[in-house]
Design a protein that fits this description.
12 helices, four-stranded antiparallel β-sheet, seven-stranded mixed β-sheet, 2 domains, binds D-malate, 404 residues, single chain, alpha/beta
């Protein structure tokens, strides 16, 4: 008998952003003339920076000749990129991370989803609620049904304290947060690090949106906290930092000290396990992609990518101010491309986030993401993404102004 993995019956049949894409496609089919503006999935719209494009063109030329041709690369990533990452993203900012602790991949989503393979099916997982659905769904697919939800509410500023995690062995944290756009202070992250170290627990820290932090003092990496090397894995992405959602590249940091425990109580280092996993199941990001990623760290690359992130932050400010002016509560949109809008916060409006999503799609042709799609505590909210052209953002704001 061909038995199916029944864990798949415990997750929603469609991934959140696939469900939204279906609804948008159905709306477009019914209204072929409608000019839909997409502020739903966090997908970038601005082109790659010129210095990145030039580096990728040079890499294509390398591949065109026998002399500089590259076939299979190192599964962990080329040294030219890992060395730049270690220096520019960590060492120059006072953090002690070495290039051999960095594993380059085709993006943070895959790494966040795959990392759970290193742990027993009986480990206790905790996630924020609302949450990026990948953390939950990948654990449920693997047979971990009992996932603790840490309420992220307006009252706690969408940053749950460690006391709420109870007996969890592994906690996923994401700051700047997807979906709420909230940021955690250094003291709040330090409390998580201290809690994890005190109980031999592990933090899985998703820093995909770190490039959006502009407020002085807000950490961009968990390794800014003392002791994080012994309790935290960090995921980084070039998707939002440098417009790589289509190019695909990111990396994961696994410090040498990190261990999980065998049944005899002995510590098993995680870096060799993750390396084993990646070298077995992954052939590395392409040479051309990694040359493009390397160019992010050149002075022009830094200037150009920062300017694009600033541009999206400008959009975020406009959206946030527009929603507040209409009488809604809004968080995020300051150190984050996401604005988390309390749809029940304005009297007279329904608090149902899917109903609000449908209303904005039907009446304004504007796509958002319903908060309930990120978990029960997301009910009553929608997430608006700032990734779009200025023209489209201004047009969306004007349409929302009319229908709200
Ligand atoms: C989002 O919209 O939450 C993200 O773009 C999805 C992703 O990065 O996978």
């Amino acid at each position: 008998m061909l038995h199916v993995n029944e864990n798949y019956s415990k997750i929603k049949p469609t991934y959140l952003f696939a469900e939204i894409a279906h609804r948008v496609a159905a709306h477009q089919a019914k209204n072929p003339g409608a000019k839909i503006i997409r502020l739903g999935i966090g997908d970038v719209t601005e082109p790659l920076a010129p210095s990145i494009v030039a580096a990728m063109h040079r890499a294509v030329d390398d591949e065109a000749g026998r002399e500089n041709f590259h076939g299979y690369g190192p599964e962990q990533g080329y040294a030219f990129l890992r060395d730049k990452i270690a220096k520019c993203d960590f060492q120059d900012r006072g953090m002690d991370i070495r290039s051999d602790e960095i594993l380059v991949s085709d993006g943070a989503k895959c790494d966040c989803g795959n990392i759970q393979e290193l742990f027993g099916t009986d480990v206790k997982i905790a996630v924020g609620d609302p949450v990026y659905p990948v953390y939950v769904d990948t654990n449920v697919m693997a047979g971990r049904g009992d996932i603790r939800l840490l309420p992220c509410t307006a009252e706690n500023g969408f940053v749950p304290p460690p006391e709420t995690a109870g007996d969890a062995d592994i906690v996923y944290l994401c700051y700047p947060n997807n979906p709420t756009g909230a940021v955690a202070t250094k003291a709040q992250l330090q409390a998580w690090v201290d809690w994890a170290n005190a109980g031999k627990r592990l933090l899985l820290f998703d820093a995909a949106y770190e490039a959006f932090v502009r407020t002085p003092g807000i950490p961009r990496s968990i390794y800014e906290c003392q002791g994080a090397r012994t309790c935290a894995i960090e995921f980084r992405s070039y998707s939002k930092t440098a417009g790589f959602t289509g190019v695909r590249c990111g990396y994961t940091v696994v410090p040498d000290e990190l261990v999980a425990y065998a049944s005899d109580g002995s510590g098993v280092p995680l870096k060799p396990m993750w390396t084993r996993r990646q070298t077995t199941k992954f052939n590395g990001a392409s040479y051309i992609t990694q040359r493009g990623a390397e160019a992010i760290y050149s002075p022009e690359g830094q200037r150009e990518t920062r300017a694009t992130v600033d541009f999206y932050l400008g959009n975020a400010k406009l959206i946030r101010e527009a929603m507040c002016a209409k009488g809604y509560t809004a968080t995020g949109g300051v150190d984050s491309p996401y604005i988390w809008v309390g749809v029940g916060s304005k009297s007279g409006d329904a608090g149902d986030s899917w109903a609000f999503f449908d209303k904005l799609l039907a009446e304004a042709n504007v796509v958002t993401t319903p908060g309930a799609g990120f978990g029960a505590a997301g009910e009553g909210y929608i997430r608006i993404s700032a990734f779009n052209s200025r023209e489209n953002v201004l047009e969306a704001i004007s349409r929302l102004d009319k229908v709200l």
